[in-house]
Specification:
It is built from two helices and 16 strands. The protein is mostly beta strands. The chain has one domain. Strands 1, 3, 4, 6, 7, 9, 11, 13, 14 and 16 form a ten-stranded parallel sheet that branches.
Length: 141
């Protein structure tokens, strides 16, 4: 039902970070983002979007991921906040906590952290808010 074959076939990826690319800093996006390269920063989907981020087996993210739909087959060092759905494929390695509403985890995937099921409507804090709190900055508007 939620297999990567189904998700990948129906998803259009607007942005590709190639295997020969390294980005240092936060990446804010809408639509589909496919990562084959290295991102040292947070991946932040626009609020209210139906964005999809896919980390291939060649991809690596060193930072938090905050997106409605997340597919991981590579390496993530940081927390993952999947507002709707997360798929952890065979080569997925997550070193951080995973927040999700629905999850598919394939044999071979690894999570070194907590799995936190979120009830629909109970959205976790955004990565930006968490980072500000950790730095001691005022997050009230």
């Amino acid at each position: 039902m939620f297999s990567s074959k189904d998700k990948g076939a129906s998803t259009h990826y607007d942005t590709l970070i190639s295997a020969k690319t390294e980005i240092v800093g936060d990446v804010k996006f809408t639509g589909g983002l496919h990562v084959d390269g290295l991102i040292k920063g947070n991946l932040l989907a626009d609020a209210g979007s139906d964005a999809v981020v896919r980390i291939s087996d060649k991809g690596r993210v060193e930072g938090q991921i905050n997106a409605p739909n997340v597919i991981i087959n590579g390496n993530v060092v940081g927390d993952v906040h999947a507002g709707k759905y997360i798929e952890l494929a065979k080569k997925a390695q997550v070193n951080g906590d995973v927040y999700y509403q629905a999850m598919e985890m394939v044999l071979g995937a690894q999570v070194n952290g907590k799995l936190n099921h979120q009830v629909k409507g109970n959205h976790p804090k955004k990565a930006v808010e968490i980072a500000k709190e950790q730095s001691g900055a005022d997050v009230s508007n």
